[in-house]
Amino acid sequence: MPKLARFDPPAFLDDFDEIPGQREGWSKYISATFDRAITAVTQQGVPVNGVQFYNETKTSSDPPVSDQAIQWLGFPQTLVAQFGRSRALRIADDPAPDPQSNNIISRQQDEYLEWQVTRRAGKIVRVTFTCEGPEYWQSIAGGPSFYNNPGESPADFGANGDRQLLVQLYRMLVGTNQVQEADLFFPDSPDTYNPWNVWNTQRGIVHLQQINNTLGAEIHIGADGTVLRDKAGPVTDATRLICCGGFGGPERASDPHLGAEVNAFARDGFAITLRNPVGIYMEGIDDTAITKPGPGGTRQPVGNFFRVVRPKASANTAGLSVRAIYEVPAGERGPDGRQLTVSDLQIGGVPITRGGQLAEKITMQFFARACREGAFNNAGLPCRAKCCRRQGVLGIASVDDPCTDVFPASQELLDTPVTLATVRSATGEPGSRRGAMP
Amino acid sequence: MSVPAEGQDDPDALEPILPLDDVQGNILPGFNKRHQRVVGFRVVDVPAAKRWFACAAPEITTATEVQRFKDLRRALRARRGAAPTGLASVWMAIAFSAPSLRRLVSDADVELFEDEAFHVGLHARASTLGDPDAGSGIPGSPDLWEFGGTETTTADVLLILAADRQDMLQFHLRRVRGSIAAAGDGLELMFEQHGADLEGPLRGHEHFGFRDGISQPGVRGRLPWDSEAFLTPRVLAPEDPDLGAFARPGQPLVRAGQFLFGYATQDRFVPEAPARVRDAPPWARNGSFLVFRRLEQDVAAFRAFVASAASDLDTHTDLAGLTKQHLAALLVGRWPSGAPLMRTPAGDDTLLADGIPANAFRFDGAEPVHAFLPGHEDPFPPAPADNTGVRCPIWAHVRKVNPRDITTEQGSDTDTLARRLLRRGIPFGAEFDAEGAAGPRGLLYLSYQTSITDQFEFLASSWMNTQSKPQHDDGDGHDVLVGQNRAAGEGRVRRATLPTVGQGGATTHSFSTGTGPPWIFATGGGYFFAPSPSALTDVIAA
Q1: How confident is the model over A11-23, as pLDDT tens digits?
Q2: How far apart are CA B350 and CA B339, in angstroms?
Q3: Which pTM was predicted?
Q4: Is residue A257 a contact partner of residue A407, using CB atoms and an 8 Å limit?
């Protein structure tokens, strides 16, 4: 298999066709992101000739090539772990101040799937889902990037963007001509695109904006996942690996799973990359338990109410959905003749009152590519991080941090009696994560 | 590894002293009697029903009684060198639907249960489990169920009677009916369903011929009459690295809160750490949710499929000689004797069908060689690793419902511990091959857990009924044995891909079920709450 000629835009989207040089610039930008991820791997101690992650525009994928879809569900597991499912559903739907990013208003949906609920007269009429990385939209905006260091933004590689096109696309996706160019840039830095602009937070949804939901994160997790780790023995478990490697969010469903799947290839000595076009995708929605009202109080299965709007359907975009709308089609009426809304639907007998109930049913995926099995035989590196619990939530910490390592090395564990005090120090005080059992 | 001394009042205790006098005996350690009857009642008169609950409460069998009985049987067997004869008892368990608890206790109390599946009931969740739509005419659709297909046909109260002998069961049932009448007929009989262990060589097997009920989680906790003793006996020696995590190889220890309300549940990452106690009313402590599904089995349809599919697959060079018995074992993950494919992939081996060897295997990694306490052993070569499902397919039933050490789409294998449940099922109907045996036949599926949504339903809807979960690989597929596929336009076809490693290298071969009638389908059931004996007396009967 020859080297990849260039990295395509996620889902083979065609917005770049209207901007001269944009495709080439995007490809160079993604290529540079791969290169930085590879460099970061060497900085962790992997010798240059031992790096198992590769840039497909520079290194060919020799057959046999194995492409692997790595999947997870779209509702934030972190919120469920912290608050229980009921509260998590309430919290997840609406943008709120994000303490991770100076309390800017942001959606707290951190599984690379974000959604917005549209209500009319109290009823949910539409839930709009996106998994488009912010870097793609940054590249259309042009100029300096919040996400990159100077010299590393898409524009620095020739993806200069087109502000007019940016506004056009926003207006089309948000469905209003009120969107103005100035709305989309930081007021104190009018050259810099603002991913948290009002049309992508409170008043609309265009692309991912939760601080950790980026294509760059995906590429770096892919690269970091290829690093073999050792902590009194090989580290293979998904959570222990992400804690030891210090990448991603350990309580998320996505990041540990991505890392572990890639690492399994790495342990078998494969060379690994992310399949072009690099992106995060919706595989689809499991709507088999969704029902609508039928005659005589019965429930009937719904039709396909999940409409993929980006990319346009074609032979090469199967499984590459990046924007979709869940709504009841016009003309779909209930037994009383009234137009049905999403609020009239039930999942497993429970009325839909939150968009998150649908997000729980959406399978996300990204694609790893592996080749040259057995070409590498790396030794495991010691951990460069550990996980501690803070307010009941697992978080990455430096190995030097005095906090209690939730996953001490096996030998340490064997030598240490399990006492209630030890367990409590790792899990928080009683009641801190406990339910409302009186 | 030392274990801290912990009182029974600390919900976070790793090994709490379990008040077995106040836990129903079918939850822990489980009736496991040869004859059982599941009886559904409607509450037609609340005061009269409460009178009966009050007088029947002392007859609800406690975990203490079942545990003591089993200890006695074990002691007799050890002394005599053979199973004791004449030792027999009758036991009874009780459980209530959410609508009945609303009438018997209060709406507000029932609202405190966080589980949405319990609130809406099995009939409303049938689609979640993959059952066909009502009105579809396909076997398994709720409108065709014998009971429980709608709210009005769902039992308010479920009794499970269990006995060593059929005549004892009949006698006790007559007593129950008499006492209900004497209390004022507050309960009206809706259905009776007999269950019985199969006879002869199929004893302990389900109707397709496979030994059932081998793998159960090890419930953490200590006995109230001997705080040094664990409810789930431990067989590993102190020097074995898995002591503390496993009761025996293949039986991981799981926190009591996964099965009893009022105790910490399993942390997703650290098996020893406590996670939150599930939300429930205070009187739910020591109770559990009971799932009941009457699953009919069409043995002829299953055998026909296996024969046909094996014949098709046999045409591939690297699958030449694949028998229908072998394909059936691949679907289950075990041979008919119960011997696991992970330990004996080429053929059945009854030496591996019982005790420790029957369940000592992992999937992602090799089972280590263990050090055992005296009197326990596993003298056979340990099971190797099989991440890609060459020995035991990714879609084999035992692997779908319990992926063990596999990293799943949920993340770490530690999450899988939080999906385990206590199975208490028993077959119903006559053996298929018995002379003159007519249907129906199948399994009375019964399980106890503290979250119907996150345990029972999760296993069915997220893993058994999907192709790519819990493990996504070239050789994945539905749980063809038990799983369902109700995706639009798919005709309920279940698919699987068999990975093989032959002379030509690794390859895969796909097969599917076709659109014919299902060989396992629901014909009744319900979601219930099994209270502690004290809650039955002090709250429900009050």
Answers
A1: 999 999 999 999 9
A2: 6
A3: 0.91
A4: no
